[in-house]
Every structure is written in C-alpha cells, then in structure tokens.
Specification:
Rossmann fold, five-stranded mixed β-barrel, 24% strand
C-alpha cells in the first residue's frame, strides 16, 4: 500500500461521499455468516468492495464484500458485509484500511461482530458474548511503522478497548430482549487452522474465554483513531480440550446462522440508542 495511508484513505472516503448524502455515525463490521443485519437497515447506498480503491477482496465464501449505507433504528450507519483476515495473506494495514475509511466518513462508534470458539465451560454453542477485553496473539500490530498523527497518537492507550458505557447499554438491551449475553475476553490467533487441545488449554490459562481469527486489528485501529468500540461474538463451537470433537466450517456457519437473529435484534436495539 502507499506510504501515505491517510491520503489513500481520504481519497476512498471522498469516493464514497460522492455516492451518499448521509454521513454515518456508527460503523458495523459483520463477521463469518453474519449478513442478515442488512435486511433490517433502511438502505440508501450499496457499494461492492471492488469499486472502492484500497479495499481488499474477501476470499472467505461467507463474506459477501459490500459496503451498505443507510439507517438502523433511526441512526445513520455504514455496514461492512465481510471483513478481511491475516490468514488470507493480507497485511494488517490492508485488513484495517476500511476502518480508517469508516472513521473519515464520520463514524465515531464501531460495532464489531464475529464468530468464535468457546473455551469457557459455562457457556454453550449459540450463545452471545459481549467482549470486555482481548489478547492479541497475531504476532503483529496494524500500527507498526511510521505513525501519522492525523489518525492518532504514536502510543494509543488500550486500557479500555471496548467501551464500558456501550457494554452497559448492550447488557440492558439484552436483558430487555430476553437474550443471554455473557461477558468475556477474546483472543485473536493467526489461523486458518483451528487450535489443538494443548493450544486451547494454553489460551484458557491465559485468561481467554473465546478464540477467533479477526476483530483485534480492527479494534486497535479504531481506538487509535478515538472511536468507541462495542464487540459481540457468537460461540459457534465448543473448544473444551478434554471433550474436543472435530468441527468443520459448515457446522460453524450453521451455528452462526441459528444465533444471528438474536445478534441482529441486539445490535439493532443498541445502535438505535446511540
């Protein structure tokens, strides 16, 4: 990518502004198998990623690769239908480039969703997890390299990666909607292979409740730019090392699809109150 990341992000932002009149207040990233939220959005504009300079092409079959702009619960939003991962061969700068653009578009809040393996034995497949913290085991950071102060500070604080006020808003919404919402720690690993029994034991002992291959780079960049972040994960498979069973992507997608209505209702309620 260009050394002047800010200029490239600004150019992409301007190309999006030319196609919509409503700047978003909230940006939403939808993970694997989580595309139905767009069905409850009052859509203004839809832009395929391949029409946006600097946006990579998703290679994961369940990531459709579209930017959707409109309103959700009366709040102007921009939704990424599909994200990018390091295991696809992209650098973390490329993975997080869209987040830079969404901030420059006007979004000051980022809602990230994902699917994950559940390592907390008290939680079950299909349950939602409100992210309270994370562990970065990707072996990299999207902030490595020269810092551009127009984006944010050289050493951004990460004492509160996931906004506490937004967490409380989500907890209250879940209670009102009758949705079970656990709260825990997400750990990001490179993938694409799933973890071994010994690796699950290690991750659990480190303090992680759920494990996945995304989200953390996007959150780091969002916090670098001063965005508030809310994160919600769907547990799609049980990762208990003493009772570990083989799992494939089709089962993960099916579990995500079954839990997606609850995630959609929760995000719709929360975004409408931001």
């Amino acid at each position: 990518m260009s050394t002047d990341l800010y200029a490239r992000a600004l150019a992409t932002t301007e190309s999006i502004h030319a196609r919509t009149d409503t700047p978003p207040r909230v940006a939403i990233v939808l993970g694997t198998g989580l595309g139905a939220l767009s069905d409850v959005i009052d859509v203004d504009t839809t832009i395929p990623y391949d029409e946006l300079e600097g946006f990579p092409e998703p290679t994961v079959e369940t990531h459709s690769g579209r930017l959707v702009l409109g309103t959700l619960g009366g709040t102007p939003v921009v939704v990424m239908q599909g994200r990018f991962h390091r295991y696809e061969g992209y650098s973390l700068e490329e993975v997080t480039f869209p987040i830079r653009v969404l901030k420059l578009l006007g979004a000051d809040t980022l809602v990230v969703s994902n699917v994950s393996g559940g390592m907390n034995p008290l939680w079950g497949v299909g349950e939602l997890v409100l992210l309270d913290d994370h562990i970065n085991l990707l072996g990299d950071s999207p902030l490595i390299g020269p810092n551009d102060d127009r984006f944010g500070p050289r050493f951004p604080d990460m004492s509160e990666p996931y906004d506490r006020a937004l967490q409380e808003l989500a907890s209250a919404a879940a209670l009102d909607l009758g949705i079970r919402l656990n709260r825990g720690v997400y750990v990001a690993v490179p993938g694409p292979q799933l973890e071994t029994r010994a690796e699950y034991r290690m991750l659990r002992r480190m303090g992680a409740d759920v494990v996945g291959m995304s989200t953390v780079p996007e959150v780091i960049v969002a916090r670098h730019m001063g965005m508030r972040v809310l994160g919600v994960s769907i547990i799609t498979d049980a990762c208990l090392p003493d009772a570990l069973e083989p799992v494939d992507v089709s089962r993960i997608i099916a579990a995500a699809g079954a839990a997606e209505p609850d995630l959609t209702r929760l995000i719709e309620r929360v975004v409408g109150q931001i």
